[in-house]
Design brief:
Blueprint (H helix, E strand, L loop, with lengths): L2 H5 L16 H11 L2 H63 L3 H4 L4
Length: 110
C-alpha cells in the first residue's frame, strides 16, 4: 500500500501556482491592493472610529438617562406646584372681583 492511500487520497494542485487561471492578473492586483499598508491603515482608522463612536453613544445615552430622570424627579414637581399657585392666585382675583373689593386687600399680606 502506498502512503497516499493510507493518508486519505491524492492531493490537488495548488491554485496559486497555476499561471493559466482566468483572473490571474486581476486577482494578483486585488490581493496586492488589499495587502497594501494604506488599506491596512484605513481599516484600522475605521475600526478605531467605530469603537470611539460606540463608546460615545453609550456614554451619551447614560448622560441622557441621568438628565431625564433628574428632570422628572426635581423639575416636574416644581412646575406643577408653580401652576397650582398660579391657579390659586387667579381664583383669588376672580373671587375678589366678584365681591367687589380691591384685589390687593383680599389676598394675604406678605
Amino acid at each position: 500500500m502506498s502512503s497516499a492511500r493510507i493518508s486519505g487520497g491524492v492531493s490537488l494542485p495548488d491554485r496559486g501556482s497555476s499561471s493559466k487561471s482566468g483572473g490571474g492578473v486581476i486577482s494578483r492586483m486585488a490581493s496586492s491592493f488589499s495587502q497594501s499598508p494604506v488599506v491596512y491603515q484605513g481599516k484600522r482608522v475605521a475600526s478605531d472610529a467605530a469603537f470611539v463612536t460606540k463608546k460615545l453613544l453609550k456614554s451619551t445615552g447614560k448622560a441622557a438617562w441621568i438628565a431625564g430622570t433628574t428632570f422628572l424627579v426635581l423639575i416636574v414637581p416644581l412646575i406643577i406646584e408653580m401652576d397650582r399657585d398660579q391657579q390659586l392666585s387667579e381664583l383669588e382675583l376672580q373671587h375678589a372681583s366678584l365681591l367687589g373689593s380691591s384685589p390687593s386687600a383680599s389676598g394675604p399680606q406678605k
